[in-house]
């Protein structure tokens, strides 16, 4: 099968290290496995971190490697023990493969399992024509759906949903919440927060096209910076959900957030240095959100299927993988970039 193979790490020209090659197609080895014909693979900043050689677990991801942890497609083949799926079924793939026996997983927190297998991270991913997954990681989609539109839910959507759910717990109708970054995750986050809470939702993004998208998707206000947002707001934000995570955005959030407020982190580009005294005296909550649970992915797919959540994608062919990754790195993608093998 054709796959986009990462052959070396780089911080320079991506096309020099990611190339389309012929690799062995996955084969069913266990009774509970599915082969999925990939029709959509989301392009994530984690993919950029991997190709830059950043550490995951015990070190950089071994090479050569097939990226892609946000995957959706159509069932191509099923193992003898598969009970709930047949060839031709559209599915989105939960990104973590686990045994179901870990204590964290039995509490409903599959993303806490330390020895999980994750396509695109420590197993071959979906930047390819086919992907092998266990049946327990497949989520059925409506028969008439286009799976590629659901692919970003498997990470971007899950992280946004989990962060927004935690933030929404303490938001009331007279509160304001800031969404920092209206890109691949943030454009989903602002819609989700509008669904989950009655708060005023303000989107902040330096890009005019992202602010225009946020307005179209229902943001109550859009601004280019924290300072612009705070000048226009009557009250400081009760919650800030930061999908950028730069040192500038983190420091601005801590400076502006209300006493008793919450900073929810999803972006991981910067460092946060907060005096313990400040956290105590202002009773601030700082929390991180890493992907999400299988149950949350079910909820997300229902929101999309019901037309309540719009996933905005910019699609690329598999042969355009270097362009997709470069556009993401350079901030040129509107919504979520998705490869269509």
Describe the structure.
This protein has 341 residues and is α/β, with parallel strands linked by helices. The chain has ten helices and 16 strands. It has helices at 45-51, 103-106, 156-168, 186-196, 208-216, 226-232, 247-256, 276-282, 294-305, 321-329, and strands at residues 2-6, 18-22, 33-42, 65-66, 70-78, 90-93, 130-134, 138-140, 176-180, 200-204, 221-223, 239-242, 262-265, 285-288, 313-317, 336-340. Strands 3, 5, 6, 7, 8, 15 and 16 form a seven-stranded mixed β-sheet that branches. A six-stranded parallel β-sheet has the order 11-10-9-12-13-14, with helices on both faces. The radius of gyration is 20 Å and the shape is globular. The mean pLDDT is 95.
* Strand tally: 16
| Assembly status | single chain
If you compute it from the alpha carbons, what radius of gyration comes out, rounded to the nearest whole angstrom?
A: 20 Å
| Named CATH architecture of the largest domain | Alpha-Beta Complex
Q: Which strand-content bin applies to the residues?
A: 15-25%
Topology as a string of helices (H) and strands (E):
EEEHEEEHEEHEHEHEHEHEHEHEHE
CATH homology superfamily of the largest domain: Medium-chain alcohol dehydrogenases, catalytic domain
Which structural class is indicated by helix and strand composition? alpha/beta
Helix content: 25-40%
Major sheet attributes: 7 strands, mixed
- Which runs of at least 5 residues are low in confidence (pLDDT < 50)? none
Classified by CATH, the class of the largest domain is: Alpha Beta
Indicate the mean pLDDT. 95
Principal-axes shape call: globular
N- to C-terminal separation? 10 Å
Number of helices: 10
Number of domains: 2
């Amino acid at each position: 099968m054709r796959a986009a193979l990462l052959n070396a790490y780089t911080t320079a020209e991506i096309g020099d290290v990611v190339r389309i090659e012929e690799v062995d197609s996955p084969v069913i080895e266990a009774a509970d496995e599915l082969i999925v014909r990939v029709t959509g693979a989301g392009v994530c900043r984690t993919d950029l971190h991997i190709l830059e050689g950043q550490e995951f677990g015990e070190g950089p991801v071994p090479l050569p490697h097939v990226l892609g942890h946000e995957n959706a497609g159509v069932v191509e083949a099923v193992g003898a023990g598969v009970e709930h799926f047949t060839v031709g079924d559209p599915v989105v793939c939960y990104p973590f493969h686990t045994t179901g026996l870990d204590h964290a997983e039995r509490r409903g927190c599959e993303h806490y399992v330390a020895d999980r297998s994750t396509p695109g991270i420590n197993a071959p991913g979906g930047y390819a024509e086919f992907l092998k997954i266990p049946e327990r990681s497949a989520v059925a989609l409506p028969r008439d759906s286009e799976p590629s539109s659901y692919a970003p839910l498997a990470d971007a959507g899950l992280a946004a949903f989990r962060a927004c759910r935690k933030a929404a717990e303490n938001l009331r109708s007279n509160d304001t919440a800031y969404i920092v970054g209206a890109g691949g995750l943030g454009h989903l986050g602002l819609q989700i927060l509008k669904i989950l809470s009655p708060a005023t939702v303000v989107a902040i993004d330096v890009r005019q096209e992202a602010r225009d998208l946020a307005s179209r998707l229902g943001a109550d206000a859009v601004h280019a910076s924290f300072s612009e947002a705070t000048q226009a707001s009557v009250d400081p934000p009760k919650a800030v959900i930061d999908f950028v995570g730069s040192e500038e955005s983190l420091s601005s959030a801590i400076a502006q957030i209300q006493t008793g407020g919450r900073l929810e982190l999803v972006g991981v580009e910067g460092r946060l240095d907060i005096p313990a005294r400040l956290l105590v005296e202002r009773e601030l909550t700082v929390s991180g959100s890493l992907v999400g649970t299988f149950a949350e992915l079910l909820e997300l797919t229902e929101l999309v299927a019901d037309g309540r959540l719009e996933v905005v994608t910019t699609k690329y062919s598999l042969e355009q993988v270097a362009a997709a990754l470069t556009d993401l790195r350079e901030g040129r993608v509107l919504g979520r970039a998705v490869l269509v093998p």
